[in-house]
Write a structure and sequence with these properties.
The complex is a heterodimer of chains A (292) and B (318). With 292 residues, chain A is α/β, with parallel strands linked by helices. In chain A, 51% of the residues lie in helices and 12% in strands. Chain A contains eleven helices and six strands. In chain A, strands 3-2-1-4-5-6 form a six-stranded parallel β-sheet, sandwiched between helices. The longest helix of chain A has 34 residues, at 256-289. Chain B is an alpha+beta fold and 318 residues long. Chain B starts with a helix and ends in a 6-residue tail after the last helix. The chains are: A alpha/beta (292), B alpha+beta (318).
């Protein structure tokens, strides 16, 4: 008996689906299809807060992710840092993840040094920004940072004493920061910053997190997290707002999240089509068996 | 030769031919990285441990403070003064081949995938070992216990006025006690550091968890079911139906989900119906979580394909 289309679909090798997904993602990359996103309220609140803070405000940039989640979080870190530089805020880079040190280096090199390291008012290390490096100890490190930064670390990542850096003048703890911005890829991350810094010490905190984490983080918004940027879509929203406000950053070469938006959109369309197809096959099988 | 082997051999030959043609004809080559050497001249700021960029004045004397160095910036082939970078090119090729090895698992398990898996495990273990030595053993223990030894042996920038803090002996001793588990007669001593860790973690977490995840969450859920807003300019107070619906959904969702986990009353009648609604709320949450996970995984795939198409094959310019 010749197998019907339904029989063929029932026994479809899953590797054809992998191949279809590879094409759905690869073609928009090759055709350079990007996308803009309409900003959601949690993303807009973080953007507005950084925008409203007076120039020279202190922002603790906690980069807590590794290459596993860099695809979603690196574009966020670049956008947050770029926005802080545009507003001339002082930036304090720190991480609770040992594997995040190269992520901080990339952010500093690509944004602070490449885009704001020259010109009339260049961003200078030690005066406008500092890299505090890796703080071992997970949640204990957050507690130390919130009570006394120098107990957590007396030197910056280059080995210079924190007291010798002008940017550290009058900074005792994370409580002296006007805002903590956390790019969180897991544990320790945004949840721990809420538990050990923001809630007990009332330090304003905003977070960018991976899509996986976002359902755990939304309960903290808006009382314990003043803003929340979720996944690559959130990063795309932030880049769209940054591009609208500062047109020099509207170009696609400065928007890695927007470049990943096109493949994302086509992959989602394929997934929706596959879910509809799968349910259709399920219903057809039930109809064939004669069960309601 | 089986049909499968024939197909894969043909694919590999086609792939190799494509790479060869691309390497010979394309402007960017395949995985070829180019750099421009930039001479950096600056004055050394001893206080900040930073080289401050400086224009050279041939008539001035700078002594030891003038530093010269060469920095290599990524550049396009054909740019002025550009040179081929072997180390960066090898890095891109290794990255690309390991990416393909990992992708090959989607077809079926194979030696290439196992190799990539072993490399990542080995590299991660080595990275963490080195990092823990410098950031914990040296920076957290040796610098605190003996700053002079740390300055002499590992960190020359350790402040000269740093004093030893003998309190750090406590974690060192507790850490050493963990190894007692290898000696059966004194294995019981190994429980002390574990007891310390469990006790302090529980104590620290209990208070802060209660505050952040219990009290604050209850406070955030106490919301008006009928919300009003006041216009900033006209000062007129009006019914805010959007916020009201949002608050009602939030409160109803929390109460119904809690009811599902409340087992002191049989889930029948009204309680059963509310509990059923709670199951729906949980299912919607799991669905959202799953969808967002898929979004994250697709982003990872996008990133790797961008790397292959841009850095390796040079098909697109990111």
């Amino acid at each position: 008996m010749t197998p019907t289309l339904l029989d063929k679909l029932n026994s479809l090798d899953r590797r054809w689906i992998f191949l279809a997904m590879a094409f759905a993602v690869a073609l928009p990359i090759l055709l350079e299809i990007g996308s803009d996103e309409t900003p959601s309220l949690p993303t807009k609140k973080l953007f507005d807060r950084i925008e409203e803070l007076p120039a020279g405000s202190r922002i603790l940039m906690a980069i807590d992710y590794d290459p596993n989640s860099a695809a979603e979080l690196a574009p966020m870190s670049l956008a947050f840092t770029r926005h802080c530089c545009l507003r001339r805020h002082k930036i304090y880079f720190v991480t609770l993840w040992g594997t995040a040190l190269p992520m901080i280096d990339v952010t500093i090199k690509e944004v602070v040094q490449a885009e704001f390291g020259s010109g009339d008012k260049p961003f200078r290390y030690g005066e406008d920004y500092v890299n505090l490096g890796y703080l071992p100890g997970e949640v204990v490190a957050i507690s130390q940072l919130s009570s006394d930064i120098r107990k957590a670390r007396s030197q910056d990542v280059r080995g210079a004493s924190l007291d010798s850096l002008p940017v550290m003048k009058d900074v005792v703890s994370a409580q002296d920061m006007q805002l903590i911005v956390n790019a969180s890829g897991g544990f320790p991350g945004a949840k721990e910053w809420v538990q050990y810094a923001s809630t007990p010490h009332k330090i304003p905190l905003a977070a960018g997190c991976t899509g996986v984490q976002s359902t755990q983080m939304f309960p903290y918004y808006p009382d314990q997290l003043l803003g929340l940027v979720t996944g690559i879509r959130g990063a795309n929203e932030y880049e769209s707002m940054l591009g609208a406000k500062y047109p020099q950053f509207a170009v696609m070469s400065k928007r890695p999240a927007s470049r990943r938006g096109g493949p994302q959109r086509w992959a989602h369309r394929l997934m929706i089509a596959l879910i509809v197809l799968g349910n259709g096959i399920h219903l057809a099988n039930r109809y064939r068996r004669g069960t309601p | 030769m089986t049909r499968e082997t024939t197909i894969w051999t043909a694919l590999f030959v086609c792939g190799a031919a494509f790479l060869a043609v691309r390497a010979a004809t394309s402007e960017r080559g395949v995985g070829q990285q180019f750099v421009v050497p930039v001479e950096v001249v600056g004055l050394y700021d001893a206080e900040k441990k930073e080289i401050v960029p400086h224009e050279i004045n041939p008539t001035a004397t700078y002594g030891d403070e003038l530093r010269r160095s060469v920095r290599y910036d990524s550049a396009l082939r054909g740019s002025p003064k550009v040179v081929f970078s072997l180390s960066r090119s090898i890095g891109v090729w290794v990255g690309a081949l390991l990416t393909l090895c990992v992708f090959s698992y989607l077809y079926k398990d194979n030696v290439g995938y196992k190799l990539a898996e072993s490399i990542i495990v080995g590299v991660s273990a080595g990275y963490w070992m080195v990092l823990s030595f410098w950031e914990v053993m040296v920076a957290k223990v040796l610098v605190k216990l003996s700053p002079d030894v740390a300055r002499y042996a590992f960190l020359p920038d350790t402040p000269a006025d740093a004093k030893a803090d003998m309190w750090y002996l406590v974690p060192v001793v507790l850490g050493c006690l963990v190894f007692c588990r290898w000696v059966p007669k004194i294995a019981w001593l190994g429980r002390w550091p574990l007891a310390f860790v469990v006790g302090t973690t529980a104590g620290l977490k209990l208070i802060l968890f209660l505050d952040a995840d219990f009290v604050s969450q209850i406070r955030s859920t106490i919301l008006p079911l009928i919300a009003f807003t006041t216009d900033a300019t006209t000062k007129v107070r009006a019914f805010d139906w959007k916020q009201s619906v949002q608050n009602i959904v939030l409160v109803a969702g929390v109460l119904s989900s809690l009811t599902y986990f409340y087992f002191s009353v049989e889930h029948k009648g009204l309680v059963g119906r509310v509990s059923r609604a709670g199951v729906w709320v949980l299912m919607i949450t799991f669905g959202a979580s799953f969808a967002l996970t898929v979004m994250g995984r697709i982003t990872l795939l996008t990133m790797r394909l961008q790397f292959l198409f841009d850095d390796w094959l040079g098909l697109v310019r990111m």
